Amino acid sequence: MSQEISPTGKRSGPGSSPALRASHADRDRVVDVLRIAAGDGRLTSDELDERLETALSARTLGELAALTVDLPPVSASTGAAMAEVKDVLRIDQRFSSVERAGQWVVPRRLELAAEWCEVTLDFTQAVITQDTLRIDVDMRGKNLTLVTTQGIVVDADALRLEHSRLKIRQTRAPGTPVTLRVELVGNKSFGRVVVRPPRRTFGQWLLRKPPSGRAT
Fold first, then answer.
1. pLDDT tens string 146-173
2. Could you tell me if 151 and 48 lie in one domain?
């Protein structure tokens, strides 16, 4: 049975006094819980904004606990993953494919240097702990594919294309909060840049159901 961690980082069980002063780390952990909850569809965009503002100005553990009392605790595995978030992740690859999928931890910035190899970044089940990811692209040949979900928005306005095409297919239902904004900057020559939702399984296709992927 997996252990659970309270929003303030303590193991579930008898907690500290709610009157104790909150630290910066306590506030950051609650912010992570709120963003994950929004990605799961438990909070609307307005609710997320309101609770984030309160969390960042909270003075005590009790004030922080009140913001997550109606949300499930974070599993120990997810808490460990959040602790491993990198400031910069560099991918330097030539001629062989690169794929990030499953519950990979999204860094704060990603440097992508690739030549003649397929690159796929699947955010469907990714662990997201901040609201912005900048991807510095230096890529020649083949395709860069980003698989996104409802709460993820991709901005490619600052990406320079040379003999390359951009295809973005993303929709966001009204009221869906933006859990991650991906900014593509740099250069892409030859090949394509594709932004798309996850593909439906055969069973979903038969039942005409949308893909079930979500951001974590």
1. 999 888 999 999 999 999 999 998 766 7
2. no
